[in-house]
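sry for the spam today, last one i promise. struct tokens for design, 259 residues
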């Protein structure tokens, strides 16, 4: 990844905003929308601001301002000048508290916007309500599935396409209580082979990509590229090996190698 996507809690915090015009006003609205407090450079220094936005039309002024703020330890975004940025701003799909951020590392704001518009049309307005319902049910889920791996697998199955809590389906938020009250049979431990046709992750089928996203662990040949492994869950255990073990472990394991 060219950068680390993070979500920063700005509520009540000062954020330095320097510049004027439409670009500066757009940044002001975004800071305030996230609960931050736009301030000038002096006030930001007095109150310990850590983020800064610069929107200067003049190239030299923008570079000098960014350098000055960075020397003071601030993390800086410079409008329309990605080479001067410590961080860039994504296109945002807002289904509060669910937020999707689409970034291109400053390469093309137009591409990020186009993707946002396409994705926004797919996501129901009630998606945030599902997140709130799952948060409210956290204690009951822990009681129902005390083991963290079992709990994760149950939630994954419920949220899968066609599942009782399919986030793209209708009425998922209202279905949480019914889902918790229903009988559940945990899937048997299994290992599934995936044989790659190329080193290109885009050649994975939809089913293969879904399995990688659900796997508890990967047993992969040493020549499987990182681009493929990156498609698996970030917290899935990874084991480079010539052959998969006879007893791979609980849950879903993937035996991954080239055909």
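last one done:
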């Amino acid at each position: 990844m060219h950068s680390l996507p993070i979500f920063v809690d700005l509520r009540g915090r000062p954020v330095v905003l320097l510049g004027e015009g439409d670009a500066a006003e757009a940044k002001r609205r975004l800071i305030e929308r996230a609960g931050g407090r736009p301030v000038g450079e002096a006030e930001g220094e007095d109150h310990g601001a850590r983020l800064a936005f610069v929107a200067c039309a003049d190239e030299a002024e923008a570079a000098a301002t960014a350098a000055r703020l960075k020397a003071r330890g601030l993390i800086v975004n410079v409008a329309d000048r990605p080479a001067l940025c410590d961080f860039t701003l994504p296109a945002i799909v807002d289904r509060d508290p669910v937020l999707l951020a689409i970034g291109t590392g400053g390469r093309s704001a137009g591409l990020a916007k186009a993707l946002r518009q396409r994705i926004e049309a797919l996501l129901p307005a009630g998606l945030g309500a599902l997140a709130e319902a799952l948060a409210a049910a956290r204690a009951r889920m822990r009681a129902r599935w005390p083991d963290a791996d079992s709990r994760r697998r149950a939630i994954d199955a419920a949220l899968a396409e066609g599942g009782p809590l399919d986030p793209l389906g209708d009425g998922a938020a209202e279905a949480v209580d019914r889902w918790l009250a229903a009988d559940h049979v945990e899937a048997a431990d299994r290992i599934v082979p995936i044989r790659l046709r190329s080193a290109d992750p885009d050649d994975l089928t939809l089913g293969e990509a879904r399995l990688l996203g659900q796997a508890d662990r990967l047993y992969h040949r040493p020549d499987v590229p990182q681009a493929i492994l990156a498609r698996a869950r970030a917290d899935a255990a990874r084991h480079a090996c010539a052959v998969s073990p006879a007893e791979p472990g609980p849950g879903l394991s993937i035996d991954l190698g080239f055909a």
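The mean pLDDT is 94. ok im logging off now
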